[in-house]
Design brief:
Chain A is an alpha/beta fold and 267 residues long. Chain A has seven helices and 13 strands. In chain A, the strands form three sheets. A nine-stranded mixed beta sheet of chain A has the order 11-10-9-12-8-1-6-7-13, with helices on both faces. In chain A, helix 2 crosses helix 5, helix 3 packs across helix 4 and helix 3 runs antiparallel to helix 6. Classes of the chains: A alpha/beta (267), B alpha+beta (405).
């Protein structure tokens, strides 16, 4: 079975807040020197899900990203984990593209790769947390999509049965393939890279597809980009206030704490 | 000349090891370290997981199925492993050092016979044994008296050599499946002209054990506790002559030339402990408030941190240069090679103590972890050659040929 995994390189979400700042234009977030970007953690879950399906059912895993040349690092990470192929869609001129733009470009590239059973994406990226690209890509491809998937099972007669994370518990859904799934971190524990993966990757030259290569309609791309505009960007201010609860016993202090939280309408 | 900017491959391997350290080493090492019985403190699961990643084989040549990494890369990884735990780092420093030694000095037949099964062995490690109760770093000094140095005897008997004697304080001694044993083949000659070395397998898959070789006690050390440091006992142990590496009687002289990375890896191991202590101090001093501001904003603390940082970077550059020159014999300077470990260990014990003090009373609490770093930082003041011994050897060489700056 052939699986395409879409991945994104993002600023390290584990970096402390003071390592982030907004640039002079006031419209772009950047990190201080030395904070290395990482593969979006949900994308790592998607890579792992793809690799596990390949190990169980055969086939191959192709990883795909849209971004500048530096985004190849996300593809290399996937190859070091065990993915078979990688493709970068050149997005050098696209700074923080709108989800619609990314989805359109991914869909065109997926069509060019062709012959796939599943496309797997992370549920959202840890930079903007919009969680739209996966579902929009399915829409562009006109294939079924389930988001927030925490388990994937391939059915003998074709198609797939998935568990979708719900508010309480999960939903079970069956859908035909080809399909697109966005996965949550509950689905697996991503594996580490290996020596063999690192050595193999250092010899691979990853193909870069231009927008022309994947048959992008420039007017459509422009109109998709115009669907969203950033108005302003700011880092939330967090203030911490320490309260010592009154009470002669721990039980009394606890009861007072609950009362105070209720008064502040914090449930 | 050298450029120590990590290549893409080196950076990817460092990232791999850093993540392995975060996931497998840091969460487990404190409990192994705290085991009163050092045998129960052997991290078999960490070793197996590291080998599954391919760490052991990284030093093995590509044509034998390994990764073919150079000493600079391996030194970087020794350092990264030690950020997680010194003992774990020493396990791999020893593995890689012995593998490199065998590849530099062994025959093709020896490599196929021993390195290939070693690669397939899920937990097997390597050890090299020189130290005995009456002799430690003698081989690093120009002792000419035949009475000085190791006493383990090796006597030719047909196509075998019979080993008798006891080695002590051997890193990986308990966990190794492949040993390099140095013995006295000519007790009437000075050690540089009377020592030979042999490959001795133990429980290596598909390879027979030799009778007369047993592992004795496992040492209850104050630091580097995970490395299975042990005593090796040889009683009429018959080793095939085909297992000899280097030439008869000149193994010591050749070893110095053929294992040039040994002290650089030792420096890298202790350096990792220094970084771990520094990282903890940097994190804590930004968090700990005193006088309504984080203590990193107190002048005495920030000055100390700056000094610690500069010392560690200097030590790191020295380690990297030592690793690099190990693979560039035309630039190799034994004085530099032997200066690395003493310099690094002196830097690191100072950094570890300063870091612990920044934690105040918390630093003295065992569960905080700073005391482990201090205990680990003491180890390389003596391990891989006592500092004074190495410095004395370097001092004697200083006058013998010009120092090129």
């Amino acid at each position: 079975m052939n699986i395409i995994v879409c991945v994104k390189l993002i600023p390290d979400p584990e970096a402390p807040v003071h390592h982030y700042r907004i640039d002079d234009t006031g419209m772009k977030m950047e990190t201080v020197q030395g904070v290395a970007p990482v593969v979006n953690p949900f994308c790592e879950n998607a890579i792992e899900a793809g690799l596990q399906l390949k190990e169980a059912h055969g086939g191959k895993v192709t990883v795909l990203t849209v971004g500048p040349s530096s985004s190849q690092e996300a593809l290399k990470r996937a190859l070091r984990m065990g993915a078979d192929d990688a493709v970068q869609v050149d997005g050098e001129d696209l700074s923080d593209p709108a989800p619609q733009v990314t989805a359109y470009l991914l869909a065109r590239a997926i069509e060019k790769i062709g012959d796939f059973d599943l496309v797997i994406c992370g549920r959202q990226a840890g930079d903007w947390d919009q969680g739209q690209v996966g579902c929009l890509t399915a829409e562009c491809l006109n294939i079924p999509c389930v988001s927030l998937v925490k388990q994937i099972e391939m059915l003998d007669g074709g198609g797939t049965r998935v568990q979708r994370l719900a508010e309480e518990g999960y939903e079970v859904m069956e859908l035909p393939t080809p399909a697109l799934l966005t996965v949550t971190n509950e689905i697996n524990q991503p594996r580490l890279t290996t020596v063999a993966g690192v050595l193999k990757t250092s010899k691979i030259k990853i193909p870069v597809w231009s927008k022309e290569d994947i048959g992008v309609d420039p007017d459509l791309l422009k109109s998709l980009g115009a669907l969203m505009r950033m108005e302003s960007l700011s880092i939330p201010e967090v203030s911490v206030e320490c309260q010592i609860m009154a009470g002669d016993t721990p039980e009394e202090q606890g009861a007072n704490r609950v009362k105070a939280l209720r008064e502040q309408k914090i449930n | 000349m050298f450029d120590f900017t990590p290549t893409e491959e080196q950076q990817a391997l460092r990232t791999m090891v850093r993540e392995f350290v975060e996931k497998e080493v840091k969460p487990k090492a404190p409990a192994y370290d705290a085991e009163p019985d050092p045998i129960k403190g052997i991290p078999w699961d960490i070793i197996q997981a590291a080998n599954e990643l391919g760490l052991k084989g990284l030093a093995v040549r590509e044509e034998l199925g390994g990764g073919g990494a150079d000493s600079l890369t391996l030194g970087m990884l020794v350092e990264e492993l030690a950020v997680g735990d010194l003992g774990t780092s020493v396990i791999y420093a020893q593995n890689w050092k012995v593998i490199q030694l065998l590849q530099n000095a062994g025959t093709e037949e020896q490599m196929k016979k021993y390195l290939v099964p070693l690669l397939e062995d899920p937990v097997g490690c390597c050890a090299v044994a020189m130290k005995e109760s009456e002799s430690g770093s003698d081989h690093m000094l120009p002792h000419k008296d035949p009475k000085a140095g190791p006493k383990m005897s090796c006597i030719k008997d047909g196509d075998h050599v019979i080993l008798n004697g006891t080695k002590e304080f051997i890193s990986n001694g308990y966990i190794a499946h492949l040993y390099i044993i140095f013995g006295r083949s000519n007790p009437k000659a000075p050690i540089s002209e009377g020592m030979s070395a042999f490959i001795v397998p133990r429980d290596l898959p598909g390879v027979d054990n030799y009778e007369g070789f047993t592992v004795g006690r496992v040492y209850d050390k104050i630091g580097e506790r995970l490395a299975g440091n042990a005593e090796l006992i040889f009683q009429d142990c018959r080793v095939p002559s085909a297992n000899m590496i280097f030439d008869w009687d000149t193994a010591l002289r050749d070893w110095v030339k053929i294992s040039p990375q040994s002290n650089a890896y030792a420096g890298a191991s202790t350096l990792g402990v220094g970084w771990a202590a520094f990282d903890r101090a940097l994190e804590y001093t930004q968090m700990r408030i005193q006088g309504v501001k984080p203590i990193i904003q107190h002048a005495n603390i920030s000055i100390k941190l700056a000094d610690m940082y500069a010392s560690l970077v200097a030590a790191q550059n020295m380690v990297r240069r030592g690793c690099w020159q190990a693979d560039h014999p035309e630039h190799f300077d034994l004085r530099l090679a032997r200066s690395i470990k003493p310099f690094c260990s002196k830097v690191v014990i100072k950094v570890a103590l300063e870091a612990m003090q920044m934690f105040g009373g918390n630093g003295a609490m065992r569960d905080v972890g700073m005391e482990k770093l201090v205990r680990d930082a003491t180890i390389f003041l003596h391990s891989d050659g006592c500092n004074d011994t190495l410095d004395r050897g370097t001092g004697e060489l200083l006058a013998q040929y010009p120092v090129v700056r």
